[in-house]
Amino acid sequence: MTGYGVDDYLHRAADSSNWPGGLKYDPDNSGNPLSSLGVHEHWNDPVSKQYSGNLGRTGGIELVSVPDTLVKTLKTVKN
Prior knowledge:
Layout: H1 8-14, H2 74-78
């Protein structure tokens, strides 16, 4: 299944600015609501399957493959 809006719930969860107005999520009742429920990215292409972490950026997803030859990362590219 593909199409517009299929992963909309992931975009919404990843950034509180996409949440409905007035919604606050404070699961531990600490008074500090979460600003995100995680990270959502798309890989660069279906062959390389690289996320931002595989491309050397910080703060994103790094896909780790077994065996490590399936997904190229900056670490494996440098070797």
